[in-house]
Design goal:
Order of helices and strands of chain B: HHHHHHHHHHHHHHHH
Distance between the termini of chain B: 16 Å
Strand order of the largest sheet of chain A: 1-4
Order of helices and strands of chain A: HHHHHHEEEHHHHEHHHH
Distance between the termini of chain A: 17 Å
Oligomer: heterodimer
Number of helices of chain B: 16
Shape of chain B: globular
Number of helices of chain A: 14
Strand content of chain B: under 5%
Helix content of chain B: over 70%
Structural class of chain A: mainly alpha
Number of strands of chain B: 0
Structural class of chain B: mainly alpha
Strand content of chain A: under 5%
Radius of gyration of chain B: 21 Å
Chain lengths: 318, 338
């Protein structure tokens, strides 16, 4: 089929739509807010970026692999870090790999239930969503406060000469990049594109799918530490705060919910676009009560546009 | 997944042991859930004083009725193979429309209802159209629409949420209220009418058949001249309407409205449908959802009576969803799909 060059580039690199949107919104932000605080804005953006990237691998693995439990898992990791690891003398940098392991373990459990019981991912992660929220409420009935001297606060400030948020955002990017050196990432796209074909080609579909959920959990664990470094409290009631917005960011970032397309960079730029929209809205005179409407409308519009743009891609798959 | 949802004569071929027979029966009637419901009720009656009293039974039934009414739309959307996560949003919107917005715009309860009914149907229909036309996961669109609808209802009022239900409305929803002199609250009567109506609609009308066909196999349905897009538009429109009307009932029940009015019902509606044994794309029906809603309400009430915290309740919801789906919602093995 003959298509114009821009359309083809857009289809191949689905995150470009979100990237373009982000650039426009950034300009708007800088224009209407002369005192646009780069450092603080970047710091409040980091947790959202990590959650969005955490949602990406399972969605890429296909068959509706949406992981709803990412938000609660992130809060669980924050609670375990502040309330259990730090008092036990494990509050140093070694806590980061520990909570990432915890997140990875829950992701692995999700994946195993999905492949063993052959259930739809959304149902399994919905069940896990409830279970983890319940565990969060049990572990932290009231918000836990992070010690102000903790190293984690530097993730919202400066890590050596580098801005902390950039370091935390680069954690999943580096892991994802390293995975690109292995066969896993190619297999992930093969499974997401068409799992039956991947199966006949000898790919261990089940292992790839479990690993996709595990990696999402690992990223969610990192997101928990980054969040707690920013807001300095681990609060069980914030378990649900990031669920909707993470899925929205991923969809906006051009990661096809049919699987097999897009990358975590799409999640990053989708999150950036959403964050900047919130930032613009917060600075206008629009009453707070209108925000959900603007937010919902934007999401509907962007998901629809994204679906129209990537339609040929999904059609070819069937 | 078994695509043959409409009733078939119960003939168990092959080994006709008790197990095989009960598995076959379970596919038609939610026997397991009914048994669990009875056990939970008996446990409640024997361990909690006053649990079996008429007043207690009526209030348990009313809580179940609210969850059940919130699950009508969810049942339909899951039957056609979708999901409706805008339940909470439309409940809040419905509740706000007939209280705060009706006051601010001075249009009264009925004026607000005249706007609410077509408004909810149109917005729900848009979701159904978009997700069918462009093959977008209804999950995301309904989430977004839920947010959107709360915004457009709250936006114009531009103030903190406050609203009182009209007195005649709250009187109708009180557990001690009567219907035409009978000692049954109108909400329960409404629920019974909805249950019977849904049973007839799904099993005995062309529209109901089209819903099952669309859910079981959209391609086959369109070859059978079912306009599946119209089915999706109508189902999501009706689902939004049901949620909005549930919001009106909830406002009547609780007397006032708050922005978190709908949140518990999003998840209890999903849980009721799933526990009842309705599976994405069918089989299933609303009667199963009713059993699911009753089961969850009775179990929760009994456990709360024994000191269960909301944290335990969340964990229980999650475990129940996983177990129920493990019984029903199995997909085919990948080696069978090659």
């Amino acid at each position: 089929m003959m298509t114009s060059v821009p359309a083809r580039i857009l289809r191949k690199h689905t995150f470009i739509f979100a990237l373009g949107l982000s650039v426009v919104l950034l300009l708007v932000n800088v224009l209407i807010q002369p005192t646009f605080g780069w450092a603080s804005q970047l710091a409040s953006f980091a947790p959202l970026a990590l959650v969005a990237m955490a949602s990406a691998p399972s969605i890429i693995s296909g068959r509706g692999g949406i992981d709803i439990s990412i938000g609660p898992v992130m809060t669980l990791c924050a609670i375990v870090f502040v309330g259990y690891l730090a008092p036990a003398g494990l509050g140093g940098i070694e806590a980061l790999p520990l909570v990432m392991l915890l997140g990875g373990a829950i992701g692995t459990l999700n994946g195993l239930i999905i492949i063993w019981l052959r259930l739809a991912p959304i149902v399994v992660t919905l069940g896990m969503y409830f279970i983890v929220i319940g565990i969060n409420l049990k572990l932290a009935p009231s918000p836990l406060r992070l010690d102000d001297t903790s190293w984690a606060t530097s993730l919202a400030g400066m890590v050596g000469p580098l801005p902390g948020p950039l370091v935390s955002i680069s954690i999943p990017l580096v892991i994802w990049g390293l995975l690109g050196l292995t066969a896993f990432r190619r297999n992930l796209y093969a499974v997401g594109g068409n799992d039956a074909t991947a199966f006949t080609a000898g790919v261990n579909v089940s292992a790839v799918r479990v690993l996709a959920f595990a990696i999402g959990g690992v990223f969610a664990g990192a997101a928990g530490v980054v969040l707690v470094g920013l807001v300095r409290t681990a609060d069980a009631s914030s378990s649900t705060a990031y669920t909707l917005v993470a899925i929205a960011a991923v969809a906006l970032g051009g990661i096809s919910l049919a699987g097999g397309a897009g990358g975590i960079i799409g999640g990053l730029f989708g999150a950036l676009a959403i964050f900047l929209v919130q930032s613009v809205l917060a600075d206008t005179d629009l009453p707070q009560t209108w925000l959900p409407a603007v937010y919902g409308a934007l999401l509907i519009a962007s998901v629809t546009v994204g679906a129209i743009v990537s339609r040929d891609h999904t059609r070819r798959k069937q | 997944m078994n695509a043959s949802s409409p009733p078939q004569p119960l003939r168990v071929s092959g080994p006709s042991g008790v197990w095989t027979r009960s598995v076959a029966l379970q596919k038609r009637i939610p026997l397991l859930q009914i048994a669990l419901l009875i056990i939970a009720f008996v446990v409640g009656v024997t361990t909690l004083p006053g649990f079996g009293g008429p007043q207690s039974i009526v209030s348990v039934l009313m809580i179940a009725a609210l969850a059940g009414l919130a699950s009508v739309g969810q049942t339909l959307t899951i039957l056609v193979g979708g999901f409706d996560l805008s339940v909470a949003g439309f409940i809040v919107a419905g509740g706000l429309m007939v209280t705060q917005v009706a006051d601010v715009l001075a249009i009264g309860f009925w004026g607000a209802l005249v706007i609410l009914v077509p408004g909810a149907m149109i917005l729900g229909g848009v979701v159904g159209y978009l997700s069918h036309r462009f093959a977008i996961q209804p999950l995301i669109l309904t989430l977004a629409m839920g947010s959107f609808v709360v915004g457009i209802v709250r936006g114009p009022t531009g103030q903190s949420v406050s609203g009182q239900a009209p007195e005649w409305l709250t009187a109708m929803a009180a557990p001690i209220s009567k219907t035409f002199g009978l000692p049954i609250p109108p909400i329960l009567v409404l629920w019974v009418i909805v249950i019977v109506g849904m049973a007839i609609f799904l099993r005995r009308t062309v529209g109901g058949r089209r819903i099952y066909l669309t859910g079981a196999n959209p391609t086959a349905a369109s070859y059978a001249l079912v306009n599946t897009r119209r089915v999706w538009v109508l189902v999501f429109g009706i689902s939004a309407l049901c949620s909005a009307l549930t919001g009106v009932v909830l406002v009547a029940y609780s007397g006032n409205v708050d922005p978190n009015l709908g949140n518990p019902y999003l998840f209890s509606s999903l849980a009721a449908v799933i526990v009842g044994g309705t599976v994405g794309g069918g089989p299933g029906d609303y009667t199963r959802t009713v059993v699911g809603a009753l089961l969850l309400t009775v179990v929760t009430t009994v456990l709360v009576g024994h000191g269960l915290t909301s944290a335990d309740q969340q964990i229980m919801y999650g475990v129940v969803i996983l177990i129920a789906m493990a019984i029903y919602g199995r997909e085919r093995r990948i080696s069978d799909r090659v």
